Amino acid sequence: MSERDTSAGADGSGIRGSPRRAVSILTFGYFVGFAGVVVYGPVAAEFEEVLGLSGLLLGLLVAAPQLTGSLLRIPFGAWVDDVGAKKPFAILLGLSVVGMGGLLTILVLAYPDGLTMTHYPLIFVFGSLSGCGIAAFSVGIADTSYWYRSRHRGTMLAIFAGLGTTSPGLFTIVAPFALLYLGLTGTYAAWFLFLLVGTGIFVLYAVDSPYFQFRKRGFDEEAAKARAKENGQELFPGGDAMESIREAATIRRSWLLTAMFFVSFGGYLALTVWYPSYWSNLHGLDVQTAGIVTALAFTLSSPLFRASGGAISDRFGGEETTIASFVVVVIATLALVVTRDLYLAIAATVFLGAGMGIASAAIYQLLPKYVPEAVGGASGLIGGIGGFGGFVVPPILGLFVDVQGVSGYATGFVVYLVLGVVSLAIAGLLYQSRSSTVRSRSPTPADD
């Protein structure tokens, strides 16, 4: 597809935007929305102290953004096939603005002296809304696939996912310093402004892929496809998206891949918000240093490893890469369970982020091999339910702290030790069965 920007001609043959513009604004929008992952994590200690939270309630609070951010990926990703990407993406960012605005209102009216546990349900709800932008992942993945031909698609998908997911790492560094200089209310006021401006920029510059542009001009389906092909689009919506999801849900292999993604990407989401408390409470780091260590050792590094995971999978095979990745996860979490040494914990965290990041990429590389009947639907299930691990696990880690005290921050990693072993078993099962699974199957467009 040509990179030049064109305008609709008198006959409606032109399109607005270009692939580069489209993916640039999609990546920017995802960067803005994905920052909601850490809406509470970097400043969790402040809420923990003011509200007097238990480990369980703290875990639920820091995980709140993942509740909507993961589950909304499924319906909003499917919605793209009906209306294009701009509308679903903008609505998700708008919900994030509402959530952040609600949280800011509570802080303005009640913080610090009037903020009590009676506010906890509202704080949880607004935190969940603030995480809606996380769900834009599935929207952006679909739209990027429509804008780019197969020879460039993999690279552009990696750029979208890799650069977009760097925002939690940057915010994990910035938020504690903002808390120091602006206070809690000032920090969220700045975040609200960032979201509001970012959403406005997205709405102003985002463009749907050519097929949807022509449909909105009144072309019927076949004419819209023909015009879109003339403008370089080669991939189109494959029919009823929700039916594809339902079909994928009936296939056992979809759930095996989802289970592994629950551990890899869900683990990345969960530990991104949990690590600041881990470094502060177990290793005695101040809030600012804990944010920097979390970002550099895990939240920023893991997406970089993930960006290389596709190429590694193509070179060595998705099954082999997944097995090796989960071996790294198991070894790293074992080290985190037993060590109380700061530097060894940092090293183990880097390896854990590498294992989770590369595994996440390898799982999507395996998807078209094992679920060719419903690639789109399985992608929604894996991304949505798999990412839900970011919400489920932090409260469990909090229970370890409630039962064991500070040492529970270390022993809680046994959760990912067990999940890593289970994922390793699943990856081994896929490796053993791959010859019969892929026999006589021709490549699909999703293999590109």
From TrEMBL:
Do you know which Pfam families this protein is assigned to? Answer: MFS_1
What is one term from the GO cellular component aspect held by the record? membrane
Q: Which GO terms describe its molecular function?
A: nitrate transmembrane transporter activity
Q: What is the top-level taxon of the source organism?
A: Archaea
Q: Which UniProt keywords apply?
A: Membrane, Nitrate assimilation, Transmembrane, Transmembrane helix
Q: Where are the transmembrane segments?
A: 23-44, 50-68, 89-111, 123-142, 154-182, 188-207, 255-275, 287-309, 321-338, 344-367, 379-401, 413-431
Family the entry assigns: Belongs to the major facilitator superfamily. Nitrate/nitrite porter (TC 2.A.1.8) family.
Q: Can you name this protein? A: MFS transporter, NNP family, nitrate/nitrite transporter
